[in-house]
Write a structure and sequence with these properties.
Layout: H1 3-12, H2 15-28, H3 37-48, H4 54-65
Helix pairs in contact: 1-2, 1-4, 2-3, 3-4
């Protein structure tokens, strides 16, 4: 698996959830999204559709922000 998927899996520990979330996030990421409140909120919303724990959502968002493939 790519680094991002593996990192998300380490947090949620569910392969199907990880793959569904990553696909949703990838679909919703727009160019220059990091630092843009509205675009970041869209990505956060995509994560929240799969994870209800707010701390986990924030952790996953930070993981995604730090991956080259999502910049």
């Amino acid at each position: 698996f790519p680094v991002t998927i593996h990192a998300i899996y380490e947090i949620v520990e569910d392969e199907n959830l990880t793959l569904a979330m990553e696909a949703d996030v990838a679909y919703n990421i727009e160019e220059n999204w990091i630092g843009n409140t509205l675009k970041e909120r869209t990505v956060k919303h995509a994560i929240s559709r799969h994870v209800t724990d707010p701390d986990m959502v924030e952790t996953i968002l930070e993981v995604i922000k730090n991956q080259k493939e999502y910049r």
